Amino acid sequence: MKMNTLFAQLERAYERLREAVDTPLDEPLALDGTIQRFEFTFEIAWKTLKTYLEDHGIVSHSPKGCLMAAFRFFNPLSISLKGSEKPISKYKYTDLVN
Asked: Which domains are assigned to the chain?
């Protein structure tokens, strides 16, 4: 139930952020408002992610730790490079860009 509530709040915050981004930033207050909406949306997003991870037995206490735990949990780099059995996550960054 808590996840549903958080996700609904995140959807509303994201919609408000989209409205702010679509508004011309001619006025300094418009830019400030857009920044404020981004910060609010990010705050709800990481707390929603934190709750999701906690529901799966992963505890994190900060936005950075939560994002790192999410990348490990979802493992988006678990695919292998063509012709290699080694997952991308086992490579160093420099191995991938050179």
From this structure: 2-97 (1.20.120)
pLDDT in tens, 37-53: 999 999 999 999 999 99
Distance CA(75)–CA(14), nearest Å, equals 25
Q: Which residues pair with 80 in a beta bridge?
A: 87
Residue 30, classed as helix, strand or coil, is helix
What's this model's pTM, rounded to 2 decimal places?
0.71
Residues 6+ apart with CB under 8 A from 51: 2, 3, 6
Whether the Cβ atoms of residue 34 and residue 23 lie closer than 8 Å to each other: yes
In the chain, the largest separation of any two C-alpha atoms, in whole Å, equals 54
